[in-house]
Design brief:
The structure holds 2 protein chains of 2 kinds.
Chain A (H helix, E strand, L loop, with lengths): L1 E3 L1 E4 L2 E8 L13 H23 L4 H15 L1 H12 L4 H17 L4 H23 L10 E4 L4 H6 L7 E4 L7 H9 L3 E3 L11 E5 L4 E4 L3 H21 L7 E2 L5 E8 L16 E4 L12 H15 L3 E5 L26 H6 L1 H14 L4 E6 L5 H20 L9 E5 L2 H5 L10 E3 L1 H9 L17 H17 L3 E3 L10 H6 L4 E4 L4 H9 L4
Parallel strand pairs in A: 3-4, 4-5, 5-6, 10-11, 10-17, 11-12, 12-13, 13-14, 14-15, 15-16
Antiparallel strand pairs in A: 1-8, 2-6, 3-7, 7-8, 9-10
Helix pairs in contact in A: 1-2, 1-5, 3-4, 4-5, 8-17, 9-11, 11-12
Chain B lengths: L3 E7 L8 H12 L4 E5 L7 E2 L3 H6 L7 E7 L3 H13 L4 H8 L1
Antiparallel strand pairs in B: 1-4, 2-3, 2-4
Helix pairs in contact in B: 1-3
């Protein structure tokens, strides 16, 4: 059973599953007071060690709070009453809880707001030690395991021994999390966004953090294919390294632009702008999480990426919520969400929300080389409506004297209607082929359904013919055409894409070197 | 005979002897060999100035007259250094100016 997700740190891992969501183990009592005392002191030391590690990444105010927690934990006066209670026969967890609860009660009784608020710090301190106490009774992940669950704490990552392999597979998670950054820097394969699918919690699994997916209870054939991919990945990684810093050129000397896809503004922190030709796709769904983002939050996020890219283009896609990317308060529940209100369809329905994003984009545009594209366009009317909203907001900002700039407006080519009849879009500024969705709609094979995954290939002649037609239309009309789907970074698909006439690909940052290396092998 | 010293100082920091100031106060107290104690009233109770748990538990808000006393090596220096720290508002304003 394969479940697809988003690659957060590239690589392959094969091993036993380790369930991150097992309920926390209860504290196992020790046989005598000496051991109980040692357990408590050990747990306090563990909690202090964790806080000290967190201080490394915290800013001023947060670091101040952590420092206060450490000072409290290191003070013998805090553990004194608990140690005394252990001496008279209490287990470590009960003794610690009673001692801290009495301390907490003292703060809660204060007539000063400030000191009353410190009760929360004391509760935090109490719980950190209780957690450390019970973890001693918890099974550690076996070497080489694939840690699988809803999310993972940074401390869990740091405590795990990755020297013998292993990886991380998360239902939620984010490519921008601290753990994702740690995983990339340490080369630990990691996939996020698997969704809350019913899945096994034990047994073996294959983690493919190159394309983004995990196979549970794999068959011998799946294992064989996986090992080949993993070995090929290692070989290619080694061979591709020298290509990263060079412009991409085919064997015949044809220049190919290679841009990057990003999902979070912080993704650019790990990319040297000199290694790519800009951002071919900046997703904006990250902004639409539990709450809807305000204009300022969006403006800052877009501006950060634009300033990072300098003169190079940054193509930002307006929010593509819906489909497999629900957003509370925005998307609607549908029985067939991939064919429902998603992308531009939803934005045009919820114009109040769309206008906020448009204003943020217009204001950010003055900080770099911005291009904006609309997802899921099916008819030229949708493009006209969206472009008109940009013109309206542009005029409104101008009337208020707000600095802004109207960026070139393009469309995603992912609905087959556009690829089949591109002549309706002769006035758009650019096309960007979304090969993932184009493939699923042409092949009628859902991206998130493993049972039809074999149908979901960009290399089917029907899909390639549509891509070639769009590339030819663009050349004919002088409209730039790029491709920003996963196929752009897939060395196996790159020859076919270049043969179809594409000269502009956008890939995941981790695939830059390998994509350029694959391009160098193509004889077009 | 060991040295001893005693002084009082008014807490002028906005929220009193709270979390961050307590960390600074007890860290500074620990740099002295002398036994150092604080109290929020002249007649005690006297609390170990090197224990943040005890110092925080005093819950001394702004406007508290803090009593500090020390006994042993460097007692006078300890009291003077701690009084200075309180008078400088625990260097908190400087910290805030830096992060602002």
């Amino acid at each position: 059973m394969r479940v697809d997700g988003i690659p957060a740190s590239p690589g392959y891992a094969e091993g036993p599953l380790f369930d991150l969501d097992q309920p926390p183990a209860a504290y196992q009592g020790k046989t005598n007071a000496t051991e109980e005392r040692a357990a408590l002191e050990g747990a306090i030391g563990k909690a202090v060690g964790r806080l000290a590690a967190l201080i490394e990444t915290a800013d001023g105010d947060a670091a101040g709070i952590l420092e206060f927690h450490i000072a409290m934990l290191e003070d013998d006066a805090l553990s004194g009453p608990a140690i005394a209670a252990i001496g008279s026969g209490q287990p470590a967890d009960a003794a610690w809880r009673a001692a801290l609860d009495s301390e907490i009660a003292g703060y809660e009784a204060s007539d000063q707001d400030y000191f009353r608020a410190r009760a929360a710090d004391l509760r935090d301190i109490r719980d950190q030690v209780l957690r450390a106490l019970s973890e001693d009774s918890e099974a550690a992940a076996p070497p080489g395991a694939i840690l699988c669950g809803q999310d993972i704490a940074p401390t869990r990552f740091l405590e795990t021994d990755w020297s013998t392999g292993g990886g991380i597979a998360l239902e939620r998670g984010s490519t921008a999390s601290h753990v994702a950054m740690l995983a990339r820097s340490r080369g630990v394969p990691m996939v996020v966004g698997l969704g809350a699918t019913a899945r096994p919690v034990t047994g073996d699994a294959l983690l493919d953090a190159e394309r983004g997916g995990i196979v549970f209870s794999p068959s011998p054939a799946e294992i064989e294919a996986f090992r080949q991919s993993a070995a090929a990945f290692a070989d290619r990684q080694g061979a591709a390294k020298p290509f990263l810093t060079e412009p991409a050129v085919t064997k015949a000397g044809t220049a190919v632009r290679v841009q990057v896809n990003i999902a979070y503004p912080s993704d650019v922190d790990g990319i040297d702008i000199a290694t790519c030709d800009g951002v071919g796709l900046m997703r904006t769904e990250f902004l639409f999480g539990k709450t809807l983002p305000d204009e300022e939050t969006q403006y800052r996020a877009y501006r950060k990426v634009l300033e990072w890219a300098g003169d190079k283009p940054v193509t930002i896609r307006t929010v593509d919520a819906g489909g497999d990317k629900p957003s509370p308060g925005f998307t609607v529940e549908e029985t067939n969400p991939f064919l429902g209100l998603r992308g531009i369809r939803l934005s045009l329905k919820r114009r109040d929300i769309f206008r906020v994003q448009i204003r943020a984009l217009l204001r950010a545009a003055i900080h770099g080389n911005l291009k904006v594209m609309f997802p899921m366009i099916a008819t030229s009317d949708e493009y006209s409506q969206a472009a008109a909203l940009f013109a309206e907001e542009q005029a409104a900002l101008a009337a208020q004297g707000v600095a802004r700039k109207l960026p070139p407006l393009g469309i995603m080519v992912e609905v087959p209607s556009v690829a089949l009849a591109p002549e309706a879009f002769a006035d758009v500024a650019f096309f960007s082929i979304g090969s993932n969705d184009l493939t699923q709609y042409v092949m009628a094979a859902a991206r998130d359904n493993a049972a039809v995954a074999h149908l979901n290939t960009v290399r089917h002649p029907a899909v390639l013919r549509l891509i070639a037609a769009v590339a030819a239309f663009g050349r004919d009309k002088g409209i730039p055409v790029s491709l920003c789907g996963d196929a752009g970074g897939d060395p196996a698909a790159i020859p076919a894409l270049l043969e179809a006439g594409l000269r502009d690909l956008s890939v995941a940052p981790a695939q830059l070197a390998m994509a350029k290396a694959a391009i160098a092998d193509v004889p077009v | 005979m060991s040295a001893s010293a005693e002084a009082t100082v008014l807490i002028t920091h906005a929220v009193g002897l709270h979390a961050r100031p307590s960390v600074k106060f007890t860290k500074l107290a620990k740099t002295f060999a002398a036994e150092v104690e604080v109290a929020v009233a002249a007649n005690g109770p006297w609390l170990d100035a090197k224990s943040i748990v005890k110092v925080m538990a005093a819950k001394a808000p702004k406007g508290t007259l803090l009593h500090i006393r020390a006994k042993g090596d460097g007692a006078a220096q300890a009291v003077k250094a701690l009084v200075d720290l309180v008078q400088r508002d625990f260097d908190e304003d400087a910290d805030h100016a830096r992060s602002a």
